[in-house]
Amino acid sequence: MRISSELAKAINDQISYESSATQAYVAIGSWCERIGYGGSSTFFFEQAAEENMHVLKFVHYLNNAGAEAIIPATEKPQGNFDSLEATFQAGLKNEQTVTKLINNLVGIAEKEKDRATYLFLQWFVNEQIEEETLFETILQKFELIGRDKLAMYQIDQSLTSIRTETMSKGDSQQPAN
Ligand SMILES: [Fe+2]
Q1: What is the Å distance from ligand 1's center to 51 Cα?
Q2: What is the model's pTM?
Q3: Domains of the chain and CATH, by start
Q4: Contact (CB, 8 A) for 18 and 58
Q5: Which residues, other chains included, contact 100 with Cβ-Cβ below 8 Å and sequence gap of 6+?
Q6: 14 C-alpha vs ligand 1 centroid, how far in Å?
Q7: The pLDDT value given to residue 170
């Protein structure tokens, strides 16, 4: 096995958390779809697909390092929300938790001088900056545009362009390699 059992366990915990995040975003997308926030449901289903991609990155990493990726059961996620804003607040909170967990993983890799895992984790460090910025930018719109029905409609309709803008800014800040 190319990685320590402590690190393998920590990455399996991460797989479990990322799997829960996948389901949480599917549940939010489903609520948005039910209420009629079409732009937001598309946004959260895409977000769920990204989380699932993170799960797979960790699964491949563990399996290819000679460890065993453990696919977890997940708890039933929150299925109802008070407002559209509350869904994005839940998203930001989730991303902040993931950032902390990724930083913990980086800390373990550093402590063990596991350079390969450290480098592998850098992608997630950058990804989390982008994810937090994305949710913060969207939450800012509620302050700027408002919370009445027309504002909700405008925000719901603008999510795809907010995502595209945030992602392209993130890409331009990545070091060239
Ligand atoms: Fe993730």
Answers
A1: 4
A2: 0.94
A3: 5-171 (1.20.1260.10)
A4: yes
A5: none
A6: 9
A7: 75
